[in-house]
Specification:
single chain, about 25% helix, globular
C-alpha cells in the first residue's frame, strides 16, 4: 500500500495536523516521510529507527529540519529520557507488546498507532488504530484485554 515503507499522503497530512506546535516523538522512522510531515509543524521531534539501512535514507530526508533529533536504535533506549511528549506516532511493532509507550505522553498527550491488524487486537488497541489515545484513557496494564465482537 505504501510502496515499501513510505507513508501515505493522507497519513502525512494527518500527522502534520496532530503534531502542530507539540513536542513530538516517533517510533519506526523508516525512510523519514512521516517524520518529515511531523517535523513540518512540530515544535520538536525525536524519532527513532531500528534498521540502519532505512536510517540512512531517513537521515538524509530529515537533514533540512532543525527541530528533529534522529536516532538509530531501539526507541525504548532513547525516548524515555526525553519524555514527556504531546504527540507520539507509534509505528514500530505492536502496541499491546509495548504498553509502556503510554507513559511517554504528557497529560492530555496524543498517541497514534499505525499498521494494525484489527482482527488480532484488543479493544483498547483497536480503538487506538481508529483514533488517538488521551493519556489515561487506556485500561491499566493489569487489566485483561477483551476482543471486540465481529
Amino acid at each position: 500500500m505504501t510502496a515499501g515503507g513510505s507513508s501515505l499522503p493522507e497519513v502525512q497530512r494527518l500527522l502534520s495536523v496532530l503534531a502542530a506546535g507539540r513536542r513530538c516523538a516517533e517510533t519506526g522512522t523508516a525512510f523519514g516521510e512521516g517524520a518529515a510531515a511531523i517535523a513540518s509543524t512540530a515544535a520538536s521531534l525525536v524519532t527513532v529507527e531500528r534498521d540502519a539501512s532505512r536510517a540512512d535514507a531517513a537521515r538524509e530526508r530529515l537533514a533540512a529540519y532543525d527541530n528533529v533529533e534522529f536516532h538509530v536504535g531501539d526507541w525504548r533506549d532513547v525516548l524515555p529520557t526525553r519524555a514527556p511528549f504531546g504527540f507520539l506516532f507509534f509505528d514500530a511493532g505492536r502496541l499491546d507488546e509495548a504498553p509502556e509507550v503510554v507513559d511517554l505522553l504528557e497529560p492530555g498527550g496524543l498517541l497514534v498507532k499505525d499498521d494494525l491488524t484489527p482482527a488480532e487486537q484488543s479493544t483498547a488497541i483497536r480503538y487506538a488504530s481508529c483514533s488517538s489515545i488521551i493519556r489515561g484513557s487506556l485500561p491499566s496494564r493489569s487489566s485483561r484485554p477483551r476482543r471486540l465482537p465481529s
